[in-house]
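User: Please predict the structure of the protein below. I'd like the answer in structure-token form so I can feed it into my own downstream comparison script.

Assistant: Understood. Taking the following sequence of 237 residues as input:
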Amino acid sequence: MKKKTWTDWQINKPCPACGNGELISIKEKYVQTETRISSIQTTEQPNFPFTDYVFTEHLNCNYCDEIVVASGYKSEDNYPNPDGDHSMEIKYRSFIPAPNIIEIPKSCPVVVKKILIDSFGLFWMDENSCANKIRISVEALMDALKVKKTMITKKGRKEITLHSRILAYQNKRPDVSEFLLAIKWIGNGGSHLSNVTTDQILDAYRLLEYALELIYDDKKKDLTRISRAINKRKKAI
């Protein structure tokens, strides 16, 4: 996962369906409307430096033809630069369906995968909710890995905290638990409405992508299968 792909609006986003192509805007299906506040500003102040719009657009994958609908805000400079172009800034607020921000291993449990896909949509809308959803995916991951969820105490059955579960998993995979613990701290910020930043969320995604790669190493499994088949036949297959 490259951070710049998700922070720079000028970079085409990957297709959520095939993952191979890029989403290209269909010019004929791009619609923008000036916001009410911007309209008042530019009317009252003819020399106002910029104009704000809301927009919707359809994007088409240049590989599989998938269609994605996006929307957001656009701010355009009212005065051209020396080259005659108007500078602009775009802030996307939704993608339907949302592109996959990280690569999810094929053997990753379906429940974890589904939660992550939900988080990709929240990334554009609400950073705190997105961070919380990533934290929930770690809880689901602990369940899938059969890390003990409850314990018996004198007062009855008690739930074990996510923090303690990750520490328990440390006995089995210390290389992974360190990443999961860092993700949990970022997720906690979202749960407590601590104004998690886009950079922090992308850090959580990067850590999770690598953790999942270590746990569900599809590449290693596939290459091991191929090498064993070749070695068994003692020739190329």
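That's the full token string. The first helix runs from residue 3 to 7.
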